[in-house]
Amino acid sequence: MATLLYTHPACLQHDTGEYHPECAERLSTILAALEGEEFMALLREEAPLASREQLLRAHTAHHLDHVLDAVPPSGEHHHIDPDTVMSAQSGEAALRAAGAVVAAVDAVAAGQARNAFCAVRPPGHHAERDAAMGFCLFNNAAIGALHARDAHGFQRVAVIDFDVHHGNGSQHILWDEPGTFYGSTHQEHAYPNTGLAEETGGKGRMVNVPLPAGSGSDEFRQVFDDIIVHRLKEFAPDFIIISAGFDAHAADPLAHLRLKTSDFKWATERLLDVAAASAGNRVVSVLEGGYDLPALAASVREHVRALLGH
Ligand SMILES: [Zn+2]
User: Fold this and answer.
1) Catalytic position from the list 14, 63, 126, 166
2) Is 126 a known active-site residue?
3) CA 165 – ligand 1 centroid, Å
4) Which of 38, 53, 90, 233 is the most exposed place for a label (fewest CB within 10 A)?
5) Is the whole-model pTM more than 0.70?
6) Domain residues for 300?
């Protein structure tokens, strides 16, 4: 069975201004890295726009209107906060990024593909129910998880987040959502300063594993296996969404974990094993962070190789 690749040109046109780490070159570099014979088998799809109904599962109407009304005229930028910048194309890009995950969930749920990678931006995991923050406008992963549950009837939907930053927004949205699981490894005391181990959720299950700055492959693999994968197996997900951030790489300028590119293939394979055991192989992955362009490209390649079963 196939692996889908969702993206859209609007995601390249979301312009955050000069010197912003979350830049369009991140996505163009990823798409270039996924050219070539090895990745010919990817089924390439254009991301559709998410509908208001799909977005409202994760966000308030106030938040949707606040973001979409803030889209500035062509050539201008609007700072939703000091980190989170919008250009004229950002509204469409955000709707396509969320729409990619929704469409990928639909395709994987329907058995049209085994799994999917959504190469989209803006990223999503910092966006809370009623707030954009940390480069994120809409929470793509949480929107996909709630779509899997509410539109397809999956009863145990997991979001696993290996971005170096805690997905405060995913946790905020899923905290009290029955049938959801959010598991995150992240650097402790880093932005956004949430994700303590004692944050365990309400009706949704939260599993947070902060790692000290400087932690490398050994420390990451140990806690990922012993805590994240262990608790995920107990949950027995019937659908897995991956918040695939690659900024825990040693070369990344925004944080201080020391993962290698091969760790991203390893972690992806661990999640695919769980998906094979309880989720009929159903996995949808969506891009979050990753700011060193060569490390990002190499890490995404390893992640997609795993999705393809290479
Ligand atoms: Zn990050």
Assistant:
1) 126
2) yes
3) 4
4) 53
5) yes
6) 3-309
**What's the pLDDT at 260?**
98
pLDDT at 1 over 90: no
CA 122 / ligand 1 centre spacing (Å): 12
Q: What is the pLDDT of residues 39-91, one digit of tens each?
A: 999 999 999 999 999 999 999 999 999 999 999 999 999 999 999 999 999 99
The secondary structure of the chain, three-state, reads CCEEEEECCHHHHCCCCCCCCCCHHHHHHHHHHCCCHHHCCCEEEECCCCCHHHHHCCCCHHHHHHHHHCCCCCCCCEECCCCCEECCCHHHHHHHHHHHHHHHHHHHHCCCCCEEEECCCCCCCCCECCECECCECCCHHHHHHHHHHHHHCCCCEEEEECCCCCCHHHHHHHCCCCCEEEEEEEECCCCCCCCCCCCCCCCCEEEEEEECCCCEHHHHHHHHHHHHHHHHHHHCCCEEEEEECCCCECCCCCCCCEECHHHHHHHHHHHHHHHHHHCCCCEEEEECCCCCHHHHHHHHHHHHHHHHCC
CATH of the domain at 286: 3.40.800.20
Average the pLDDT over 105-118 and give the result. Answer: 98
